[in-house]
Amino acid sequence: MDLRKHVGSVLTGLVSLLVAGGCESLNNTDRGILTGAGLGAVAGGLVGAAAGRPAAGAAIGAGLGGIAGGATGAAIDNSERRIQAQMAAAQRPPLSLQEVVELTTSGASDAVIINQIRNSGSVYQLTAQDIIWLQNSGVREPVIREMQATAYRPVRQVYTAVPVSPVYVVSPPPPPVGVGVGFHFGRCCR
Q1: What pLDDT, on the 0 to 100 scale, is given for residue 13?
Q2: Are 11 and 46 in contact (CB under 8 A)?
């Protein structure tokens, strides 16, 4: 079978997988596997053709390319999940005073309530009446101290990644090499 037929069949299979699966429904891991396998099959087929075994080269290339593409795609998926989790955490509404009281009366420990205050990014400017109401409602002193301390913490900022265009650096070509021809007139030998 001709190498062009192998490459053509691999590319046709890759395109049909992408179309049938719908590119939009694929995550980065799946896209990486498909793209890596396709490119690996083409490269492996070309290398295998030189050795007279294009099908074996394409199969090996597809396997290695799929593994490399899948690993790269999985790393991108994990990074995106981390960013989404950070953004979701930053968008949690702050705990109200009433919610702090409800957590206390439900039996939540001080450590759990304090952790929830910190994770929600709540900031409190407690008045004397607020403190008295919290104490009368059963909120314990460590939680009230934590609530008071939030007024002096810096506001948590969320940074999002901004896509940047790639920068290409092109080195100027080296200067031309000087070539010369020399002539010498004179006596060489006696």
Answers
A1: 62
A2: no
Taking the CB of residue 161, how many other CB atoms lie within 10 A of it? 8
Distance of alpha carbon 19 from its chain centroid, rounded?
Answer: 25
pLDDT at 158 over 60: no
> pLDDT category, 42, cuts 50, 70, 90?
confident
**DSSP states of 60-88 as a string?**
HHHHHHHHHHHHHHHHHHHHHHHHHHHHH
> What's the whole-model pTM score?
0.40
Structure token digits, residue 84? 């989404």
Q: What is the distance of C-alpha 44 from the center of its chain? A: 28
Can you tell me the distance from the alpha carbon of 189 to that of 183, in angstroms, rounded to the nearest whole number? 17
Please choose, from the candidates 38, 57, 37, the residue with its C-alpha nearest in 3D space to the C-alpha of residue 48: 57
3-state secondary structure of 10: helix
